[in-house]
Specification:
Layout: H1 3-6, H2 10-33, H3 35-51, H4 56-66, E1 70-72, H5 76-81, E2 91-93, H6 95-103, E3 107-113, E4 116-121, H7 122-130, H8 141-149, E5 157-160, H9 164-174, H10 179-196, E6 203-206, H11 210-224
Parallel strand pairs: 1-2, 5-6
Antiparallel strand pairs: 1-4, 3-4
Helix pairs in contact: 9-10
């Protein structure tokens, strides 16, 4: 144990632990209020593991420059105050502009989450493809259904847990979410797995062992896109 911590009184240690719990709660609350962060990080990590760039910082810049979904923001300044910068992780538009994009079929897929609209523009995907890169979309089953209705030629991959019981153990083992949220996530996962079982995906990858799952992912990507090198 650190000497500085050892010198604290019992009361001071209690205050320190309480403060740690407050910070942890604040961080979790912020992440729960911004589900787009998990999507962004998941998308970036998937791209890093697939391409294994030597210059990670440069790769990160190119990645986030190329993939910019559009988000509703009628109040851009408060959103920027929270760290969401226009043109970095998102392109901000007004609600009217977003609806105009919806009506003109400018989105490959879109959804409304917590009062905000999120969409992946057809133009953004085409820009990635013109750079001879693989455009990876981290989307839910509603997004999959929308993309399947488009004329875009894409492969669909579903990453599944070994079983619902394993997923429940993982979620509860984290100890970061309230019971009602765990129950909701399990219900959503059950619906997604049922959807995947109906043959809507080109590949269902079971994430039982991370190394084995990743090796299988590399093999699948190499089969789908032989013009790219994945190892």
């Amino acid at each position: 144990m650190d000497k500085g911590v050892q010198s604290l009184t019992f009361e001071e240690l209690s205050i320190l632990n309480e403060r740690k719990e407050e910070i942890k709660h604040d961080h979790n609350a912020y992440l729960d209020g911004h589900p787009e962060l998990k999507t962004l990080l998941s998308s970036f990590m998937s791209a890093v593991l697939i391409e294994k760039p030597s210059d990670v910082l440069g790769f990160a810049k190119d990645h986030f420059d190329a993939l910019k979904p559009i988000k509703i923001s009628q109040h851009p300044y408060p959103m920027r105050f929270l760290g969401e910068v226009d043109g970095v992780a998102y392109n901000f538009v007004t609600a009217d502009e977003f609806e105009s994009h919806v009506q003109s079929n400018a989105f490959l897929e879109f959804a409304y989450v917590h009062g905000n609209g999120y969409g992946t523009s057809v133009r953004a995907v085409e820009e990635v493809q013109t750079q001879e890169k693989i455009c990876i979309l981290d989307i839910d089953i509603q997004g999959v259904q929308q993309v399947k209705k488009s004329s875009s030629k894409m492969k669909f991959l579903f990453i599944a847990p070994p079983s619902m019981s394993d997923l429940e153990k993982r979620l509860r083992g984290r100890g970061t979410e309230a019971e009602e949220k765990v129950t909701l996530r399990l219900a959503n996962a059950k619906a997604e797995m049922d959807f995947a079982a109906q043959g809507h995906f080109d590949k269902v990858l079971v994430n039982n062992d991370l190394d084995e799952a990743f090796a299988e992912l590399e093999e699948t990507m190499a089969e789908w896109y032989p013009q790219f090198r994945f190892k």
